[in-house]
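3.2 Worked example (two chains)
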Amino acid sequence: MDETLRALLRDPRIWQGEIVAAPAGLPTGCGDLDAALPGGGWPRTGLTEILLERHGMGELELLMPALARLSREQRMIAWVAPPFIPYAPALALAGVDLERLLIVHATDLHDRLWSAEQALRSGSCSAVLLWAEPADSWLRRLQLAAETGAAWGVLFRTSRARNRSSHAALRLRVQSGRLELLKCRGGRPRVLSTSWRSQ
């Protein structure tokens, strides 16, 4: 380091922000993804957006290690408007405690969003999974609700939303054979050529 810079950094009038470590995350089961995420895994609070070309690309398999861990806590995991009926034997095989699951069947978009917001804000859910295409104003509401209730919100959207702004702390696009971090609070966007399936 240049001596001039060293002298400047020693000056007591210069404030140097401390690097604060991200809180420990929930392991994803994918080493490359854990290494890319601050805290070494999924965030425990806040909104995560997962953008998909179509449902059934392994997006739930990507979440299973975290959901299994969260289901062993005392709070519920809410699934709001899943596109398919969750298959209980596969969830149990992945280690998810089925008694901690709450499935909310809502067909109207406003009802889906309202249900997810209330579940996130309540403090009784460790995670809320939501399948919807909300307006931008709802993203802020969901992010604030997740922070208020200390919950992890996961919003599944189509990849058409990729170029839209978002209040989510983490945005991830799932494609066949790779993951793309579009936005990562405390980290850097990047493409991960990795497979998370059956790890």
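3.2.1 Second chain
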Amino acid sequence: MKTCFVIMPIGDQVVGGVKVTAAELKRRYDDLIKEALVQADPRLEIVRADEVAIPGTITNDILFRLMHSDIVIADVTYPNPNVFYELSIRHACRIGTIIIKDQSAGASPFDISHQRHISYDNTPTGLKELAQQFRQYFAQFERNPTRPDNQLLDLAKLTKYEFLDYSPVAQTDPESDFISAALQFPELLALISKKAAGEEMPQADLMTAMLANPDAALKITKALSRSGQLDLGFGTTNQKQVPHRNPPRTKRKK
């Protein structure tokens, strides 16, 4: 099941001297945004910030969802600093972000004004249109799972920027790798074992077998090399060893 995290104001807002209550925002979420998401993909697990934290706080749960949710919806209708902060965190983490805004709202802040977004109308017709646009975005994410969707990731891709990687380094066991590779490709193991035993074997046969399953070949050769049982000797594999002979001596004229 894919996860969707919605970031939007969840407490009372005052915009241009007009107050928008938390209850009004909750109705906008339940009746429009969430409903449009459900219509776009009923399988989505949808969560809003106030369902995991109290208003005005950014918890580890929120940060976790910003980092790991498949999709994040950011409603920037109201100039709320928490929303913009959470949106920037998401943009730095991964793709799969959709910015939305009520079409009756004022202009977005300059830094995100050029970012693609969906303008919606808080009406029954607007609900249908929003759901349709969500479906289009979801389909685009499926077609282009690694395509950057914001300026930061575009620049990171262009400049080959390497983000910090905190993922655990897999500890591999050479013996386990050898066994799993041998089970995947026993024919290759048989050829390499013959070579390791000193039997003559055409280089072309070995290369053909290795190219047929490079992953298995890498694991097997690494394991045998570490154990000292393998010396491929590609340069002479297909050549017979010719015994060294001293050149014939010529008789010196007296």
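3.3 Remarks
Residues 174-226 form one domain.
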